[in-house]
């Protein structure tokens, strides 16, 4: 069992408390030639644990070589994305990782100068011409953020590949008058596309159950990432001042900061003989993963999550800066993924390769029938509270 192994290994008991997200990718990239791409993939994936590759093979239907190549391509795409955005300038329309060609694709508006297009291509990214700039799409989304949203609207975000603001409407609520009014007002704000989803989002906290959790009262959640002095997790799991206990019900520490709704993040101080290590748990399914940084993976990249309820699952980054409309209120600047989760996974870590991405917030569906899950980006949490990620 994971708990016994960690205790015998002398690792921090803290890590045994909650869900951890094991990431399915740290963007790596393929070169133009197939030969150099294969060698690059092998070199970049050399640090990937066998367990991580196995999880990607299981959840994406890839061979070992394909998983290694994807990790390498995503790592490269992540590294070149900032330079490609700078090269696009005001013509930037968004970017995403294309798993089909293993390249970062950068959208530029049709009025972009030829020199701008050449500059973007020179970074190694592919170019797609679009109608709307990222600034226009962000402005439209910001307008929607100011509108009161009914429960039948589950969220909205910029979709760079579709060059639109995607509004998600729960399938059974499409005919609701409030939903129709929201959609009509949204379309007046700018380029908007409506997508139907199967379920409404919910947070993934849970009542007290067995497993490897941390507890706040009778609520069970999962640890996200170790920071110097404690760990980060989901805001809906506890309020500032609330005490936290571990899987064995011994005292760990206290919520020092928490925000929910509007945001969904928190941090917990650690003491009383507990300590932190830069590890995301594999739960015996895959190897425990070292955390080496927090470089942000692009849309389209693979990503994995580990939680105290459902352990390891992988999927794809679907959208960033999405507003999620929970019953408790809207939460902003979330990242949407195709990874499943269930109650008790809240707060757990999303990781891409060895790079921390965020803490599990909520979603719809489950790990039997599938679904979507959102996380709050870890860099936002670190910046908000002035924390330093504990890295290997």
TrEMBL record:
Alphabetized UniProt keyword annotations: Disulfide bond, Hydrolase, Protease, Serine protease, Signal, Zymogen
Annotated signal sequence range: 1-22
Record Pfam families: Pro_Al_protease
Domain Peptidase S1A alpha-lytic prodomain: 132-186
Listed InterPro entries: Alpha-lytic_protease_prodomain, Pept_S1_alpha_lytic, Pept_S1A_streptogrisin, Peptidase_S1_PA, Peptidase_S1_PA_chymotrypsin, Streptogrisin_prodomain
Organism superkingdom: Bacteria
Family: Belongs to the peptidase S1 family.
Descriptive protein name: S1 family peptidase
